[in-house]
Amino acid sequence: TGFIYKIVADDTNKVYYGFTTQTLSIRFSGHKRDVTRKFGLSIYDKPIKPCTSVELFKYPNTRVELLETHNNQDKSFLKKQLLEVEKGYIERFRKYCPGRCVNKYL
Whole-angstrom Cα distance, residue 50 to residue 54? Predict the structure, then answer.
C-alpha cells in the first residue's frame, strides 16, 4: 500500500506534496526528524530552500493530510505509480496557484 499526502500549516499557503509506502504517521515523524538532523533544534534562524517539508515546520500547526491510497503487490510498480501521481499534484497545484511552493521534482 502507498499513500499520496500533503503537509500544510494554517499560517501559510505553502504546501509540500509527497508519497510513501510507510504509514503516514511514520513518514510525518521522519519529516519532523529531518528538521533536527539538518538544522539542529531550531530552524527559525536558518535559511531554508522554499518549500521543503522542513520549511513548513516553522509553523506550530503543521499537519499531514492524506490525499490518495494506492494498492499494488509489485512494490517497484507501486513506487513508480506514486511518483507519477505526486508529480501530477505538484504540477496542478503550481498551475493554478502560481508562486506557491513546490517540492524537489520541479
Answer: 9
Contact 64, 28 (CB under 8 A): yes
Residue with the three cell numbers 504509514: 23
Could you tell me the sign of the dihedral formed by the alpha carbons of 62, 66, 71, 76, in that order? negative
CA dihedral 29, 31, 90, 51 (to 10 degrees): 140
- Per the CB < 8 A criterion, the answer to whether 5 and 16 are in contact is no
* Per-state percent for the chain, helix, strand, coil, to nearest 5: 40, 20, 40
Give kind and range of the element (H or E) at residue 91: helix 75-96
pLDDT score of 103 = 44
User: How many other C-beta atoms can be found within 10 angstroms of the C-beta atom of residue 53?
Assistant: 23
Answer whether 0.85 is exceeded by the pTM: no
